[in-house]
Amino acid sequence: MTLQIEPIGTVIGGRTEIADDYWGGVESIIRLDSKYPIDVVKGLGEFSHLVVTWHFSQASPEDVALHARSPRGDSRWEPSGTFAHRNHRRPNQLATSFPRLLKVDSLDLHVADLDAVDGTPIYDLAPFFEEMGPRGEVREPSWPGQMLKDYWAEAVS
User: Fold this and answer.
1) pLDDT at 29 over 90
2) Strand order through the sheet with 50-55
3) Which DSSP string do the residues of 95-136 spell out, in sequence order?
4) Cα 143 off chain centre by
5) Fewest 10 Å CB contacts: which of 78, 118, 137, 147?
6) What is residue 155's predicted lDDT score, i.e. its pLDDT?
7) CA geometry: angle at 122 spanning 69 and 4, to 5°?
């Protein structure tokens, strides 16, 4: 079965260039499609965070890598498979982010820390429910923490 979906909105503003790090404090707007009635966001402003599914729209299908590789090409870290990474090299080139919701203004959702660039199509969003977050102890190898130490740092001008 093939799933066909359409974007529900677009990222407006924030960063225009793709980069590996320094996403902290970036503010943007998720502008929902005007075909949706205003009621679709009723009550959303009561939540602090969203779960946002978006597409790496500036990536190419040729970027997909169905093999083990070192994260960010850095040989300090052992190669790991495609599904052990969170980047555009995945088969469907989809991402999930958890931005802070700053304000709901009609169909414009003002967010911070959404690591998607201006023009990125949004395919789904929902409020983050703490009760739906990870259960049990969260574990991971050491490389994500090392690799992402500056991911949420604020860019210095």
Assistant:
1) yes
2) 94-97, 50-55, 121-127, 9-12, 27-32, 108-112, 100-105
3) EEE-PEEEEEETTEEEEES----TTPEEEEEEEPPGGGS--S
4) 20
5) 137
6) 78
7) 85
Which residues, including other chains, have CB under 8 Å from residue 97's CB and lie 6 or more apart? 51, 52, 54, 113, 114, 115, 116
DSSP string, 26-75: -EEEEEE-TTS-GGGGTTGGG-SBEEEEEE-TTS-GGG---S-B-GGG-T
What is the pLDDT at residue 156? 73
CA–CA gap between residue 63 and residue 26 (Å, rounded): 26
Alpha-carbon distance 71 to 82, whole Å?
Answer: 10
Task: Identify the pLDDT of residue 157.
Answer: 66
The kind and range of the H/E element at 12 are strand 9-12
- Summarised one tens digit per residue, pLDDT across range 49-100 is 999 999 999 999 999 999 999 999 899 999 999 999 999 999 999 999 999 9
133 with 51: CB under 8 angstroms? no
Long-range contacts of 37-44 (CB under 8 A, 24+ apart): 38/106, 38/107, 40/107, 41/104, 41/106, 41/107, 41/109, 44/101, 44/104, 44/109, 44/127
